[in-house]
C-alpha cells in the first residue's frame, strides 16, 4: 500500500533525510531557463553576434594610427654639386689655368650636401576615412544584423526543444508514479486474493491449481510493480538532472481540455512566427548582403587620408618635407584575381538555397502541426473510450469477486478480471500522457508556451479549464 505524504514525512524525519518540495511545471520551467547549460551556450552565441554587430558599426568611421619606423641605409643620401650642370659638363682642361686651379683647390667635401643620416628614425600620425566603398560597408553591417537575428531564432528553437523535453520528463514522473500506484494496488488486491484462496483450499472449496494460479499472478504483479518503481526512479533522476536538483517531485498533474485549440489559428501563428522560418529569413538577408558585398568589389573606393609627422631626425630632407598633409584618394579596381564574378554567383546560389529551404520548412512545419493535432484528437478519443472500459472492468471485477467467494467462479476468472482492470488503467494513463505531450508540441510549434504553462497552473487534475 502506498505511504501517505504525512507518513513519508515522518519516515524521512526518522531517517534524517528531507522530503523534496513539490515543484509546479511553471517553477520547473523557470528553473530550467536558469540552469540549462545548452541555453547558456546558445545565449553566448547571441551575445557574440551582437558584439560583432557593434564592431561592424565602426566600419564607416575614420581610422587613426601611430606609425613608427627605423631604417638603416647602405649609405646616407647625399648630393654632389659636381654631378649637376653646369659643373658636371665642364671640362677642366678647357678652363683658364687660374680658374681651373681655383676649382681644383676647393675641397671635394664642400661640393657634397647630405640629405639624410645613415640611420633614420620616424614617427607619424596617420588617418584614413572611407567615404564611399561601393556599398560594401552598408552590406556588411546588414549581414551582421541578420546574423544576430539568426542566433536569436536559433536560441528560440533550442528553447522550444527544451520545453518539449521538459514536458516529457516532468509528466513522466507523474505517469510513472500513478503507474506504480496502480501496480501496487494490483499487488495488494492479489495478495488479499491469494490469502483468501489459501483458506478456501484448506477448506476444500477450490482446487490447488486455482490457488497456484492466483499465486503466479501475484508474483508477476510484484515483478511489474518493481519495474514500475524503477521506471519512476529513473524518471525522477532524469528530471532532477535536467533541473540541476538533487531530487524533484512534481505538483502539476495531467490535464485535458474541454475544447481543442483551433487548427487554422495554430497554423497561422506557426507560419508567421516560427523561429525556423525567421532563421531562414535571416539567412536570406545575409545572402542578399553578401551579393551586395561582392558587387561592391566592382565599384571604386573613395577615401580621405592624412599624415602628421610626430618625430623625425634633424636632416635636410626632414626640413624640406612638410610636417602634415591631407588628401582625397580613389581606388578603382580594374583586374583582380579574387574571382569576383564567381563569388557573386555563389552568393546568389546561397540566396536561392535559403529560399528553397524555407519553402520546404514551411511544408514540414505544416505536416508536423497536422500530425500533432491528430495525435491530440486520437489521445482524447482513447481516454473517453477507455472510461467505459474502465467502468466495465471495475464492474466485472466486482461480480467475479462475489462469484468466487460464493464458489460460482474460479480463481482464474477472478485474476483475469483483476488484470484487465489494471491493464485498462495503464492504457488510459498512457493515453492521457500522450494527450499532454501532443498539446505541448502544438503549443511549442505555434509559440504559445505561456498558454500551456497557464493551463498547468489553472488545472490540478484531469478536467476542463
Question: How would you portray this structure in words?
Answer:
Keywords: Cell outer membrane, Coiled coil, Membrane, Signal, Transmembrane, Transmembrane beta strand, Transport. GO terms for molecular function: efflux transmembrane transporter activity; porin activity. It holds the Pfam family OEP. It is found in: Cell outer membrane. The chain is α+β, with helices and mostly antiparallel strands. The chain folds into three domains: 19-59 and 135-298 and 338-458, Outer membrane efflux proteins (OEP); 65-76 and 115-132 and 303-332, no CATH class; 78-113, no CATH class. It has twelve helices and eight strands. The protein has helices at residues 5-15, 25-35, 37-56, 97-105, 136-202, 208-243, 263-273, 275-296, 316-320, 340-405, 411-446, 449-458; strands at 22-23, 63-72, 78-80, 112-114, 119-132, 249-250, 301-312, 324-331. Strands 2-5-7-8 form a four-stranded antiparallel sheet, with no helix packed on it. It starts with a helix and ends in a 7-residue tail after the last helix. The relative contact order is 0.13. Mean pLDDT is 83; it is low at 1-18 and 460-465.
